Amino acid sequence: MDPISSSLVDPLVIHKVIIIAMLVEVTTNFIKIIIPNLEKRYITIVAGLIGVLVSTVTGVGILGTLDIPVNFVPLDYILTGIIVSRGANLVHDFSKRLNL
Questions:
Q1: What 3-state class would DSSP assign to 100?
Q2: Which among 24, 33, 47, 63 is placed 20 to 30 Å from 2, CA to CA?
Q3: pLDDT digit string, tens, across residues 29-67
Q4: Residue 44 carries which DSSP code?
Q5: DSSP per residue over 64-92, as a string?
Q6: What is the 3-state composition of the chain as percent helix, strand, coil, each rounded to the nearest 5?
Q7: What is the pTM of this model?
Q8: Contact present, 70 and 61 (Cβ < 8 Å)
Q9: Nearest-10 Cα torsion for 54, 60, 64, 70
Q10: What is the distance between the alpha carbons of residues 30 and 25, in angstroms, rounded to a whole number?
């Protein structure tokens, strides 16, 4: 393993974020089935709230994971929730770009 990639981020952490994104996606799809007339703009908000909730409850934050100092940890969970609410594919593509 080369020293550059080993010093970045443990790939297991990115896998956690991908799992959270999939949970958010599945939960959002379930809500869309329960409330079929829910407008798209509200679905995005619901997905974001679920993402923030799951990130907060699990304690997984992308900035902290990347060793980026965060003085207000809830902000890390909010940003992580927004990112994972955009879907598992986006998070997976993001991790591929980081070569993780």
A1: coil
A2: 63
A3: 899 899 989 888 888 899 999 999 999 999 988 888 788
A4: H
A5: HHTT---SSHHHHHHHHHHHHHT-HHHHH
A6: 75, 0, 25
A7: 0.74
A8: yes
A9: 30
A10: 9
